[in-house]
Amino acid sequence: MTEEIHYVKADPSGNTTILVLDAVPKQEHASLAARLLQPECVGAEQVGFLTWPDKEADVRLDMMGGEFCGNASRSAAAYLLSRSGQDHGEYRISCSGCNKILKAVVVRDEGELYDASIEVPLPRKMDIVSLADNDITYRFYQIELPGIMHFVHFTPSIKTIDKNALWRAVYQYASTRHYEAFGMNLVDRKTLTMIPAVYVAGTDTLYWEKSCGSGSAATAAALAHLCGHNIACEIRQPGGSITIEASYADQSVKHISIGGPVRIETEQSVCIDKEIPGKV
Fold first, then answer.
1. Cα separation of 117 and 86, whole Å?
2. Which residue intervals of the chain bear CATH 3.10.310.10?
């Protein structure tokens, strides 16, 4: 038995995202996402499922593992503008892993390209932790965002760092704590360059992402705390840049937003064989 799945593919700063447009039961999200992620099917770094459930939000986004995702939320807002025929718009986004309705602002650029920014929920908790791999200890900001835990490490030179060693240190610590999702962000303070990685427990997937929205938000919070004042800058990532802003007062982060380009392709469909897992 085959099922036709309608979707749109988004590219928020290289963090390729499949937005499924059909109503899919939540218990089938992880298995369907695993098939769609395969390069021979659609191929991307992550999958989200769109619905229009209530009056509070303009769209509801459920990520493949129930996590929160800033880039997918920006993409959902850009998709709404692409459907509207307007040149700009403001949208209320509801995303899995987050109880707050998020405000997104989108401006049409050229062709399939949009500029989309979104406010990000504040960290629930922020600590400094020391994590080790092979007797080498690394210092991380551990930042709990709704639906995902991020670990941010600042380095004087991202070119010489062993990213796999740092990931092992994070994974050995985080994998025993039953997080829905957790990410690592290696940040060069001099060049404002970042290497992000995200692990989603529900789908057992690790991606060294081209860019990461929630990781950028976590980096904004860590950078504001490290500097002790408001910050606004552009973070360069493998797939493109994301702008980050954070306001800081009374030794705490008061507001975070992220933004940047999103490319929205035309709506498409693919037939999935429901009887044979992984077969398209």
1. 17
2. 2-120+263-273, 125-258
Using one digit for the tens of pLDDT, what is the confidence trace for 238-249? Answer: 999 999 999 999
Would you give the distance in Å from CA 102 to the centre of its chain? 14
**DSSP E strand boundaries for the chain:** 2-12, 17-20, 46-51, 59-63, 88-95, 102-108, 113-120, 125-133, 136-145, 148-155, 181-188, 193-200, 205-208, 231-237, 240-249, 252-264, 268-273
CA nearest to 269, candidates 3, 1, 4, 2 = 4
Q: State the Cα–Cα distance between residues 220 and 120, nearest whole angstrom.
A: 10
Report how far residue 75's alpha carbon sits from residue 49's, in angstroms, rounded to the nearest whole number: 12
Determine the topology of domain 125-258 in CATH.
Diaminopimelate Epimerase; Chain A, domain 1 (3.10.310)
Whether 39 shows a pLDDT value over 80: the answer reads yes
Which pLDDT score is estimated for 97?
Answer: 84
One-letter amino acid identity for 15?
N
Note the CATH number of domain 2-120+263-273: 3.10.310.10
CA angle 122, 128, 133 (to 5 degrees): 125
R_g over Cα of the chain: 18
